[in-house]
Amino acid sequence: MAKNQPASTNYTLPLVTLTSLFFMWGFITCMNDVLIPHLKELFKLSYTQSMLIQFCFFGAYFIGSLIYFFISYYKGDPINRIGYKNGILLGLLVSAIGCALFYPAATAGVYGLFLAALFVLGLGFTLLQIAANAYVSLLGSPESASSRLNLTQAFNALGTTIAPVLGGFLILQFFSDNGVITAASTRMPYLTFAGIFLLLMLLIYRVKLPQFASEEMETQGLGALKFMNLKLGVVAIFCYVGAEVAIGSFIISLLKHGDIAGLDETVSKNYLALYWGGAMLGRFLGAISLNQSLSAVKKILYMVVTAVLVFGVIFSIVDLSFAQIQPFLIFIVINLLAFLLGKSSPGRTLLLFASVNVVLLLITVFTGGHTAMWSVIAIGLFNSIMYSNIYTLAIADLGKYTSQGSSLLVMAILGGAVFPLAQGALTDVVGIQTALLLPVLNYLYLIFFGYYCWRKFSHVTMGAAKGGH
Predict the structure, then answer these.
(1) 181 burial class (0-12, 13-18, 19+ CB within 10 angstroms)?
(2) In the CATH scheme, what is the code of domain 12-466?
């Protein structure tokens, strides 16, 4: 298992550097939600065909992780061989190449080339996910690992919040041909993103990041799969990512629906930003909730103050009036109450948040108007801590198999490819609202996984559940 640096080591600069990385890959990932309606209209696609965007992007996670897993099985863990820093640098390079490929795709105006560019981009993000998530967990004590991961994931969600507004403006307005939708409007934005990834690569190359040696350089075999919490956790990640991506992918189209809101894309992208902004807010709250050094009173105080401040940030990002965004405050209060009921237990909190999302989805399906609109947007708030909690619980007590387990969890991000495509096909048959019954099944499984881990790790705090390093 990895040897941590001395407790006195200052990890602030490495953590800040990696946080910028999490922000950028969150931003680019959420740009898919802007691309979907844009390319759907441009190439006259069905819902199923437009969901190939998510299928190719998140399918790359599965293929990349599968390759990683087999290398780990036969040759030993690649990250242990090349180091976390080199793994991150390689991931950034591949991501930059994926973004740059949008230029020839847009120039040729061929949908298949866009899908190929997204696949390469997804491969780059696969390397970043495997290396960076595990690396963040090593930058400090195991007891605060979940708190750090939630914090970096919060900045990842900041990127997903800004992307619909800024990315939507660039593609739908600034680089459009006088409002006419063209493939060329994606060229300069993605070329800029490629440049940013290269700059991040240079920054991380120059920053001195701590090295973590491994006592288990030649860990081979399927040892990680002997842990039931990991096997169930792989399915949980599959379900969670599938539900989150599927819902986010359809929000702009759902809000265009006359029975819901009848909003134009230039307006609905702001509500999509709220969906991802809710995830950001919840992750900041989760970082506080998981901090084992704070008393219960301080946690509540800090969480309330943070909720107010982050709401202010979200309000400054979206192009909506306070009256338009006001209903969101009700769900923030419910989110705070759910955190308190969760009592810093990862399984219990996951169970509660998944239960709320089941209710919100049913309201979205069986009502209409603003009730349905706000119910689907609020789901982001309760998705917030799911990835971190599932990841924490799934790799608990894996010891030397932690990196192998991490690669399996990243492989399970395949859910982001499968479920949006399935929901697109279902939407073409039963309609966009009824099709939202599909992710209800995902959250029902997360309720089961949360309950299982709540009982199994009832003696473990959210910070300590990150053991094995």
Answers:
(1) middle
(2) 1.20.1250.20
